[in-house]
Each structure stands twice: as C-alpha cells, then as structure tokens.
C-alpha cells in the first residue's frame, strides 16, 4: 500500500522554491479553468508571470485562485502542493520591475518572453501581466516522507 504523508510548512516552502511551475485553477465565466503557469516564490508570496488573455480576465474578475505544483518521479514517488489564495495584479512599475527581476533570475527560460513584444495571430499585441499571489492556505502531500521510509 502506498504511504502518503503530509508535508510540513518548511518542506512546502522548499518545494515551492525548487519547482517554479504548476497549474493555476481559476473561474472563467462561471466554469473551472486550469492553465499551466510559471511562478516565483518569494516567501510569503508567489509571483505569476503571464500575458494578457483569458486567464488574466478570469483572475481579474475573481482573484481567488488555486495553484497546484507537483513533482512526479513515478507512480510511487511524487510530491504535490496546493496553494490557495488571492492573486492581485501588480500595477505599480517598481513592483512589476521587482517581480520581473526575480522571475528572470530564477527562471531564465522566460527572459525572451519578458524582453520582447510580439503580435499574436489575431493581430493583438501581447501584454505582460504579473500577479502577486497571497496564500491563505498551503498544503502538501508526498510519498517520500518520514513514515514512507520506515
């Protein structure tokens, strides 16, 4: 039988620092909407980087969101964290610059997207949006905890 353990808050924070990618759940026009999302964890907040579109409209309309982060090695070895909270769009340029600097330092693969402006297939200019997620609750589960190793 698979032994699943609760992760402690310190373990959850370390996991959030390490991974940097998850799935954001929100409500779009009354329906659940889940999208892949890069983030940066700067205790106690998480910063989300995206471009203007359906997800930003959903978050702006209902900022209560859920971010799920996982690491799966195989069906018997995995970790998963859920962060519930409120996502507020950063509107002050110093706050945006501060968050983007962290994102660039910790996730350099996003630098090309951050540093350029492009036009999508409908002729709309892509606009960057950065959110600060204030966690109200964080929980985690793992198959690699203390009781799993006994």
Automatic annotation (TrEMBL):
Pfam families: Pyridox_ox_2
InterPro entries noted in UniProt: Pyridox_Oxase-rel, Split_barrel_FMN-bd
Domain of life: Bacteria
Protein name: Pyridoxamine 5'-phosphate oxidase family protein
Species for this entry: Myxacorys almedinensis A
Organism taxonomic ancestry: Bacteria, Bacillati, Cyanobacteriota, Cyanophyceae, Leptolyngbyales
